[in-house]
Amino acid sequence: MRTIAAAGPITFLNPSQIEQRLKGVNLVRLMERAFAAFSRGEAVIPAPGELLFEEPPGEVHIKYGYLKTGDTYVIKIASGFWNNPAHGLSSSDGLLLVFRKDTGELAAVLNDHGRLTDLRTAAAGAVAAKDLAPEQIENVGVLGTGIQAELQAQLLQAVRPCRNIVFWRRNPERGNAYAERMRDRGFLVETAWSPAEAALR
After folding, report:
1. Which of the chain's ends, N or C, has fewer CB atoms near its CB within 10 Å?
2. Which domain holds residue 187?
3. Which range is the signal sequence, renumbered to this chain (predicted)?
């Protein structure tokens, strides 16, 4: 007969606590291991749920999954509301709920405001670059000026060290702000006049 331990306290983590726990974590390696587990059939990830909104325009995605060898399952709620920046708010938000797989009891609430999703996406890009990009690169081509334009270039350094960015932007003002942020992080930044130029250089 299987013994189930009594539930412990629920852990609540805010964004600063999550960032503290991420220090020293190799996100690219973790993402690589997650892809490998999925390919081996060790992960259960059903199709996501979705809510769409017209006014104000937005969407909410509900995603869930677990590793067969793990002791928890996770439900993630991630939202995007496109008018938020006009009100001084981020367009994306979200949190993760962690449950004990033995009992279904809530174990943790990760109130990350979408940060872990952003890092996961960027880490996946780095894994793809590790397997598909040339060993030696002269520039990193970037399309856009949002959070992925920053994180993809940063996490790429773990697998293809290159601090020369050539980026294309639709909005010159946002482009200038992006270039300044990335230069502050030690990158050399040039503007491309088209997506094709950013890709070819």
Report:
1. N
2. 136-200
3. none
Give the pLDDT confidence of 133-173 residue by residue, as tens digits.
Answer: 999 999 999 999 999 999 999 999 999 999 999 999 999 99
Strand partners, 190: 166
Residue 32 sits in the same domain as residue 65: yes
- Same structural domain, 174 and 89: no
Q: Tell me the CATH number at 111.
A: 3.30.1780.10
- The Cα-based distances of 150 to 86, 125, 141, 176 in angstroms read 21, 12, 12, 13
Helices (H), the chain: 15-22, 27-39, 115-132, 147-156, 172-184, 195-200
Q: In 3D, which of 175, 1, 11 has the Cα closest to residue 107?
A: 11
Q: Are 113 and 174 found together in one domain?
A: no
Residues 56 and 92 placed together within one structural domain of the fold: yes
- Confidence at residue 7, expressed as pLDDT on a 0 to 100 scale: 65
Q: State which H helix or E strand residue 71 sits in.
A: none
The helix/strand count (H/E) of the chain reads as: 6, 10
Q: Please tell me the distance from the alpha carbon of residue 146 to that of residue 153, in angstroms, as a whole number.
A: 12
Is 27 in the same domain as 102? yes
